[in-house]
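Example S7 (structure tokens).
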């Protein structure tokens, strides 16, 4: 699939650079594999889980792509490195906890990770969701913010709702940040479109 091919093409060189130069070759290879696995897990969580959950208004556990061997559901009251679990419908730890998925509602789903290449992951997600079969727009906003964070925003209108995917991340040592590791976030949300025909069907019936 597109995302897996791009992970291979875009990620190998940059992922290898994430390994410590002081490590042995075997340790470097293990680190590279681990980072590449986390990057793939992040892309899959956005592309195969969060976006379908919001588009279909289904819980993460209802989707066919949620594998129990990969997705570890976090019990209520327990937090992940990225998300507090108190106000969420579902929270999952993925790839050994280096990736976390939070379903706050059927209209809001978030994914977070650290230590993975921001630019490469952004390109893979963009190439995946802007395919004709998925139909999201090209990025409508981007650039590096004053805080060193890079953002990309994609949108799609469906059934009277506007689905937004916001990617946000910073590389290690980016201006305005103190993190020794990269941080990558994806926010998927849906909002009703005012005056959309689909959104007005219910109102029209009430008026009749």
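Recovered sequence:
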């Amino acid at each position: 699939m597109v995302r897996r091919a791009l992970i291979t093409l875009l990620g190998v060189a940059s992922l290898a650079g994430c390994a410590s130069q002081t490590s042995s070759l075997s340790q470097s290879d293990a680190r590279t594999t681990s980072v590449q696995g986390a990057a793939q897990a992040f892309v899959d969580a956005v592309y195969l889980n969060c976006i379908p959950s919001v588009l279909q208004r289904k819980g993460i556990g209802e989707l066919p792509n949620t594998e129990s061997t990969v997705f570890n559901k976090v019990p209520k009251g327990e937090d992940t490195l990225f998300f507090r679990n108190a106000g969420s419908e579902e929270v999952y730890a993925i790839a050994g906890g280096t990736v976390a998925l939070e379903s706050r509602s059927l209209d809001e789903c978030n994914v977070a990770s650290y230590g993975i290449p921001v630019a490469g992951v952004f390109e893979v997600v963009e190439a995946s969701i802007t395919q004709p079969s998925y139909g999201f727009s090209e990025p409508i906003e981007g650039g590096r913010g004053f805080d060193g964070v890079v953002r990309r925003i994609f949108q799609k209108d469906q059934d009277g709702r506007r689905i937004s995917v916001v990617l946000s991340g910073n590389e290690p040592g980016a201006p305005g940040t103190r993190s020794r590791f990269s941080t990558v976030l994806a926010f998927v949300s849906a909002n009703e479109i005012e005056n959309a025909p689909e959104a007005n069907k219910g109102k029209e019936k009430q008026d009749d």
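Notes on this example. Strands lie at 71-73, 90-94, 99-105, 108-114, 150-158, 161-170, 183-192.
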